[in-house]
Design brief:
This protein has 346 residues and is α/β, with parallel strands linked by helices. It has two domains: 134 residues, Response regulator (Rossmann fold, 3-Layer(aba) Sandwich), CATH 3.40.50; 143 residues, 3-Layer(aba) Sandwich (Rossmann fold). The chain is 39% helix and 19% strand. The protein contains ten helices and twelve strands. The N and C termini lie close together (7 Å). This is Periplasmic binding protein domain-containing protein.
Length: 346
């Protein structure tokens, strides 16, 4: 779990509210409006379903959700879905059976989105997503009409990716590398829309500063070991490369990539890894040894969990319309600044 210090928590949660989705021309009910959900008079019950609930970021997210629920007097149940898409639907059904008033979900696989949305609609309970997008009408949120996207709390993928790409470019120029013997590893789970947003933005930002460096897209499962295995194969297939830039959807991808490179004999001075999360990057820095992890974007799951519960509470108690999206702020950190930025490294 990780958190920011109190003064940052007080000032750091800057929200960017998207336009509220409206009903589309086909006459379908607006997802974000959820007009069929009645306000709750008594005590509110919320269920928070998370993929990969043992991952550092999601542990922090759950802690933030629980803290906010206690503050608001809300009954909150947090469920770890792991990577089981089928469990997502069964846990939504279980939540309905427990008479929950609202469900917040981070889906392991966006393909279950339409079934989750329909199940919630049939039960007339409020639905909100955090982190990853969910489409009400199809398995791929990237191809979804905006009016069919479930309201989401999280971070802006484009903004985060842009910051990662710019920092990676800064480190590249500082090192004095050239494009001919450098490759970029871009690692992410390729069916997760927000991951695609992040890595595309990273590439665009990097190219704007340092054009011409070849990017190798590496499909992973968003875990350190999964990324390590795939990047190890990539390194083997590219024996002439001297310098490596590594970015990905999260800290897990970058740490896995950096580990694979170092295991292959690539020195930290020849690795430009920029993480996304900082909860694993900080472990490399805490030992004081040189690391290929040059920086990481600090994203605080506690803020997202707290904001998700607050948003659901406002919908259920005060009938306040959910925003299409609400974003928490981020901070770039490195070996010299992560402690002062408030990153807690467990």
């Amino acid at each position: 779990m990780f958190r920011v210090i109190d003064r940052r928590a007080a000032a750091g949660l800057l929200l960017t509210l998207g336009l509220t989705a409206t009903a589309c021309s086909t006459g379908q009910e607006s997802v974000s409006g959820a007009p069929s959900v009645a306000p709750v008079d008594g005590r509110i019950s919320i269920t928070y379903l998370q993929k990969q609930g043992d991952q550092e970021y999601f542990v922090g997210e759950a802690a933030g959700a629980k803290s906010k629920a206690a503050e608001l007097g809300v009954d909150l149940k947090v469920v770890n879905l792991g990577n089981d898409a089928n469990k997502t639907v069964s846990e939504v059904q279980s939540a309905i059976a427990r008479k929950t008033n609202g469900v917040i979900v981070v889906v392991p696989d966006p393909a279950v989105g339409p079934q989750v949305v329909q199940t919630a609609r049939d039960a007339r309970i409020a639905l909100l997503t955090s982190d990853d997008q969910v489409c009400a009408t199809g398995p791929d949120p990237a191809k979804c009409a905006k009016s069919d996207l479930v309201p989401r709390i999280g971070f802006s993928g484009a903004q985060m990716g842009g910051e990662v790409g710019r920092r990676a470019a800064d480190e590249y120029r500082k090192a004095g590398w050239n494009a001919a013997d450098t490759r970029i590893v871009s690692a992410w789970k390729q069916d997760v829309t927000v991951c695609g947003d992040r890595v595309r933005a990273a590439k665009e930002a990097f190219d704007a500063v340092v054009p011409g460096v070849r990017v190798i897209d590496v499909a992973t499962d968003n875990t350190p070991t999964g990324a390590q295995d795939k990047v190890a194969a990539t390194v083997t297939a590219n024996p002439g490369v001297k310098h490596w830039v590594v970015w990905g959807c999260n800290d897990e991808n970058v740490q896995g990539g950096v580990t694979a490179l170092q295991n292959a004999g690539v020195g930290p001075e020849d690795i430009d890894g920029v993480g996304l999360g900082a909860y694993l990057a900080c472990k490399d820095w805490s030992g004081g040894r040189p690391s290929g992890m040059k920086a990481a974007l600090f994203i605080n799951g506690r803020d997202v969990g707290a904001l998700a519960v607050q948003t659901m509470y406002d919908r259920l108690k005060n009938n306040k319309e959910m925003p299409a999206e609400a974003f928490a702020s981020t901070t770039m950190v490195d070996a010299a600044t992560w402690k002062s930025a408030g990153v807690t490294c467990n």
